[in-house]
Every structure is written in structure tokens, then in C-alpha cells.
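Figure S4 source data
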Amino acid sequence: MFRILEIASKCVLAGLFAVAMLAHFNAAQARSFKVLHSFAGGSDGCYPVGGLILDGAGNLYGTTAGGTCSYGTVFKLAPGGTETLLYSFTGGSSGEGPGASLVFDKKGNLYGTTVEGGSIGCGVIFRVTSTGREKTVHDFAGPPSDGCTPIGALIMDESGDFDGTTNGGGNNRLGTVFKLTADGTESVLYSFCRKAHCADGQAPYAGLTADALGNLYGTTQSGGRLGCGNQCGTVFELAPDGSETVLYKFRGPPNDGNNPDDNLIIDQSGNFYGTLFTGGHAGCFEDTGCGAAFKLASDGTYSVLHFFTGKTGDGANPVAGLIADSADNLYGTTEYGGGRACTISPYGCGTIFELAPDGTETVLHSFGKGSNGANPTAGLVADGKGNYYGAASEGGANGFGTVFKFTP
């Protein structure tokens, strides 16, 4: 059985959140898909690229990245689909472009990051209360003393401290792992590309996963194996003393994937599972390969569970990570693939998929033409009753993305 240690994995609401992340299927339930909210643009926001989180009452919380319609928003969606706009970013020093999932603190406040804005444009860490009051908790100062462009989600430990990554900045301008203490003090734990040819990895895109001993685990989007194109990325471990160990260097196509974009999950045996946006067989997005799902065993043995093909309805190019049920089945989304009916992207509108423990894949839902949403870049969250929730970054009634509910 899995121990999902992604967003908000060690906060006071961890018990509720663990239930939300672990689905127990009810075979009697009919497969259904429902759009809970279609974003309208303007003050409502657009392009929800980050994942959702659930509270104990079944309310969903997330962000829209903004873009052509705004600087981004933080929203709440009640179980019936009623949306409350908690905060609209104003750009500039307050930050703009929240692109990752949120996390609760011990008081129920929401924390997140923006990829842009702040005093020098490197992004910020923000807090939003349940009543919509926002505060910039940290303004990233950029290299060499601080990170820049935090893309991945934060996680919180039992002390109320947050850990995260930045895609750039640090001593070598190629990304960092950082800690933000409960009192708002930020420190860089590790700056990437300390080793020749960035063998330790560079440019982490995803957030972190933690174990019970305080070790942090994550991926870098590039760096690693020198012979792999522009280098294919790594899986790394960061000990509490700040020492980094590379656990695996991705090999890229045709026998491996590359460019991991989202958090790892870890099971009770210490095995890691994740997705790779590209690699594998040729084709799909810009002909860079269709991506893969992988397992990295606790003894270091690596295996590809599934190569996505983008053909005959299969998904392609997963951005989001995975979640698991009590039977060790894995679930996720792909940004592209799902058939040729898509009217929004030539690469397809994306899918929801299931992977059995042996790697057998089932496409549970194709986003079709995109009228119910398209191109999900966010992962799924489950309510413990067999229902999954997610966000599609585009499509829907207004073309600005949707929040959906899916029951397999």
C-alpha cells in the first residue's frame, strides 16, 4: 500500500489528506465524468495548470496560472461546484503566475508559489487565508544566494517548515532545494550543478517528497547522464545535512524516458514511482517521444512500467505525477494523446489512465474534442469514495480550462 508524500504530506490535515489521496474503487459505480467548473477568463482566471487539494469537508482548492486573462488566482470550489475566488494576483512585487498545487499549514492557511513576479521577477512564496487575505512570505532574490522560478509544489513537515525547489538560481544558476521555516526564514539547502557536466542534475521542475527520517527526494528535468542529448534528468536524495546523492540518471530514448516534471510517490517498501514527459518511442510532442511511467526500487533497480504511444487512443506526454489506490494501482493524466478528435491541439487533448502493478495500462477517459476540458498538466486527487478530481489546463465551455470530477 502506498504512502503518498506529495503536497501537504506532513501537516495537521495529513490524515484527511491521506484519505483524499487514496482511492478505494467501488465496482458497482458507473464510470462518469462531470465538469464542476469552466473558467471564464478575466476575473475568474484561466489555465489551471497546477493540481488541486481537498479539505475535510470536500472543498477543492487550486490556482489558475493567468496569462492572457490575468496574473493568476487562488480559488475554492465547493462540493457542488460553486466557486469562490479567494485571491487575484496583481503582478509585480506581489507575484504572478501560480503554477503549482497549494499546501495547507497547521492553521488551514494556503501556501503556494508563483513562477514570476517579486522584486526582481524570480517569483515568491505566498500565503492566502480562508478569508482571502494574501501575504508574500518570501521574495526570491535569485543567484547566487537564492533560487529563482519555483515551479514545483511545496511540502510541509511536522515542524511547520516548508521545503521546495526552484528551477533556476543558486550558486550555479541551475536550480536549488530550499527550506522556509515557520517564522518565514528561507535558506538554500542545495544548489545544483556542483559536479562536472551537471552530473548531479540541474533545473528541478518538480517538488519534493519526504521520508520519515527527513530525507528529501526529487527529480531534475535535465543534467545527469552526459551522453543523453542535453542530458535527461535525475532522481536525487538530499539528506538532512544537505548532502546530495543521485539515485538514478535517466537514459532517454528509445529504451528510457527523460525530463521528469512532477513529484515522486513512495510506497511502504521505499520504492519510487513517477512519470517522464518525453522519451521512449519516437513521435508525439515535437517528435521527442511520448513519455513513460517508471519505478525505481529501493535497491536502485529501475524499470519502465509503461511507454506512452499516443496511438489508438493511448495518452502521451504526462506532465503530472501519479497517485495510488489500496491495491497498488497507479493513476494519472497525460497532457496529450487520447485520439484524433481533439480540436484544440494537434497532439491530442489528453487522457486519464490507470496502471496495474504489472504495468498494464487502461485509458479510463479521453478528453476527446476538448469541450469538457483539454490537456491536463495537473495530477489527480481522490476523495476516498472512489472519485477523482483534477484540472484541465485548456478547453471547456470558454476555452480557459476546467475542474472535473471523474468516477471510474
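Figure S5 source data
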Amino acid sequence: MNQDHAARLIARLLALRYLPREDKEVRRLLVDAGFRDEVEQRLAASGLRLLAHPFSAHVGIALTRECESAVFEQNDTWQSSNLGLPKDAVALLVILWALIILPKRERQLSGEATQQEEQSEMFETVKLTPLAHEASRGIAENLLMEDYGKLLGGKARLQQFALPQLSRLGFIERKNKVIHEGPLLDLAFDYAEMAPRILNGALSDLLKQRGILREVTLEELHNEEES
């Protein structure tokens, strides 16, 4: 009996929420244009879209822009999350994304540029993507509490509720009192849309003061969005 590989992959993404790039079916998705088109068309028919960022170690799915209001707009108010996250947990998620993913992306972009320069002309069309686990670095929990605890409901609330919740959902991993990137953190927000808001917004000055973030150029953002 012929297997419907597109349906199988979509079912796995719906049930598991994310899959690693090393997964056999995901690898096919990333290199087989016809297979990817079929998967994306089927997702779009159900109001969903594929999340497959070239620098992320995992792929996932999300709502299309056109269908977001059907899920998030309830009783004349816009829900902050469809995962049961309260607003302070969503705010913490944004902060962790800015602290972990933005510096990681800078290192990845820098590493990719170096790799491309080192390639010979024969291989100049080959795209080498720096591995996510090599570029990602963690944030010490005590530093997070010191910098943002009071802003997000207090240290006790963060430690007992917000961080465990984000960990259970796969956004972060906590090891030896250090917060690391989870499978879904890199996919949590649209990088091309969110990064400029953070870089030009209220968080930028605080992050730069701590030496965590430099100002990514608009050219880098544009180049990555096109990739």
C-alpha cells in the first residue's frame, strides 16, 4: 500500500509539535521542493503554515496570518497565547528569545559569512548553515532573576510557575540552573519581524548595556529573510 508521506509528516508535526532537522522526513522536506510544496499546500488548506527557519535545529507549524484571529480573538479581546500562557510568561518568553536567539543568530550569520569566504569558487553556491547547538548559549537563572524578576511578577513566580511552564512546552531547557534553548524557542517568533522591534525597542538598550547584543544591520535581516 502506498504511503501518503505528506500526510504522515503533517500528522507527526501536529502530534509532536516539532521535529529535528535530522529526521528522515524533515530532511526530505528541506531538499525536495515538490514534497515541500505539497506539504505547505496541505497545511495552508487547514489554516496552517510551515516553520522551517534555515538556522533552526527544528521545524514546526503555526497558524497562517489569515487564521490567527479565529484562534486568538475571543470575546472581543486578543489572547496572548493559545497555550494557556499568562501575559507575564509571554513577556518572559520574549525576553528569553531576545537573550538567547538574537545573539545566537548573530554568531550564525557571522559564521556563515566566514564559511562562504573560505569556500573555493567551485563550491561558492553551496550554503553551509552553522549548527544551532554550536552557536546557542545559555543564560544563568540567577542573572535572569536579578535583571527581570521584579518586572515579571517576582523571582518566586518566575521560578515556580513561568520557567517550569516554558520548559514543559519545549521553549527552554533548564540544566544546572542555566536556561538553554529548547526545541521551540527559535520558532516561537518570526525573526525578520521580531528582531527589528527588539533591536529598536525598549529591550535593546538594556541588552547592549550587558554586552549581550550588538546592532544587527538591516542588510543582515534582509539577507536572512530572503534565505
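Confidence is low (pLDDT under 50) at residues 118-130, 214-222. The CA atoms of residues 4 and 10 lie 10 Å apart.
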